[in-house]
Design brief:
Layout: E1 3-9, E2 14-15, E3 27-28, H1 32-37, E4 49-57, H2 64-79, E5 84-88, H3 94-104, E6 111-114, H4 127-138, E7 148-152, E8 155-158, E9 163-164, E10 173-174, E11 182-185, E12 188-191, E13 213-217, H5 230-233, E14 236-241, H6 249-261, E15 264-268, H7 286-291, E16 295-296, H8 302-314, H9 319-329
The chain binds aspartic acid (ASP).
């Protein structure tokens, strides 16, 4: 029983053009063998690491289809005896891929994602420490049954809550609504609290490619001009509203019209907290938008709401089923 390591690229796997690459531009090109060779302490894990190099790309280039295939491969690895899974990838989209995995992962074995903020050519790269923390978490019985996790900076975050909150800091990953659910302390995985698990969505072939879900972030003095073309191009829309889920009154009508044609999910652009359900009454408030047919995204941030909505649309869910899922996850 080992840990299955899948590599997808990102800063953790980046190097310059020459030996060491210092001074040059870095691109993703290190393999899983390179990554594990930089972490001698992996030898003390007690279980072997089985490396699967899948891709070496900036995480901006990852796709839904790739992550669905990854979940499938990881599930196969567990079926073949792996006690846990580690995925290394770029940090830019990690909060989204982790949530996508979390929605689908049907197993008790830990599925742990990690990456790095400092590439291996810099002083004090964090990739080796993050990989070690992720492997320890994946191998730990304490992390079973928690769904997808993000191990970073010796913290363990639930995929459901984690956000990338800084562009360069090695402490970029945080869970603003909950804090980390655990820590790696002196090499020991300590899980302090368990996130509520939801029924996983069915893991089967879903055609995500033609399914477009737009994300509109509402801004000061916004008007409906950028929203109107969505009626012809998107199958779903996530609105990142002000504060507790508000938009300028000029947007309320157009959003209501869109909600008659496609699921439109209301979230908050603030980065923490929930949209409300029954407090404000103005045109463009949360109650007004719900009355016009928008689905309340609850505590789901806009990026995670978009993941859930696209996955459900790809699976053929109707508005009622989508609203029910958001009520559960939000
Ligand atoms: N731009 C990089 C990526 O997401 C950053 C990183 O790897 O952390 O692949």
């Amino acid at each position: 029983m080992g840990v299955a390591l899948f590599t997808l690229g990102g800063t953790i796997a980046m190097a310059g053009p020459g030996q060491g690459g210092a001074g040059g531009l870095v691109v993703a090109r290190l393999s899983g063998a390179d990554l594990t060779a930089a972490v001698p302490a992996l030898g003390e894990l007690g279980v072997p690491l089985e490396v699967h190099d899948l891709d070496a790309v900036p995480s901006a280039d990852l796709t839904f289809a790739q992550i669905l295939a990854l979940v499938d491969s990881a599930s196969g690895a567990v079926e073949a005896g792996a006690c846990g899974v580690v995925v290394t990838q770029g940090t830019d989209t990690l909060e989204e891929t982790a949530f996508l995995v979390d929605l689908l992962w049907p197993r008790a074995e830990p599925f742990v994602l990690t990456g790095a903020m400092r590439n291996p050519t810099l002083a004090g790269p964090d990739g080796p420490a993050n990989l070690l923390a992720a492997a320890r978490t994946a191998a730990s019985p304490a992390a079973r049954g928690l769904g997808a996790l993000v191990a970073f900076n010796d913290e363990i975050h639930a995929a459901r809550w984690v956000r990338k909150t800084h562009s360069t800091s090695t402490a970029a990953f945080a869970s603003p609504n909950t804090g980390p659910i655990g820590h790696v302390i002196e090499g020991r995985v300590r899980v302090l609290t368990a996130p509520a698990r939801h029924r996983p969505l069915p893991l089967g072939p879903v055609a995500v490619d033609g399914v477009r879900v737009a994300l509109h972030t509402v801004t000061l003095d916004d008007d409906a001009d950028t929203l109107l073309p969505l009626a012809g191009t998107a199958q779903g829309l996530v609105v990142a509203g002000f504060g507790v889920g508000h938009v300028p009154s000029a947007l309320a009508g157009p959003l209501g019209a869109l909600a008659q044609r496609m699921p439109v999910v209301l979230t908050s652009r603030t980065g923490g907290g929930s949209v409300l359900r029954h407090t404000y009454g103005a045109i463009g408030s949360e109650t007004d938008l719900q009355r016009r047919g928008l689905i309340n995204g609850g505590l789901l941030d806009p990026y995670k709401a978009r993941i859930l909505l696209r996955l459900m649309l790809a699976g053929g869910a109707d508005r009622e089923a989508i609203a029910a899922r958001f009520a559960e996850h939000g």
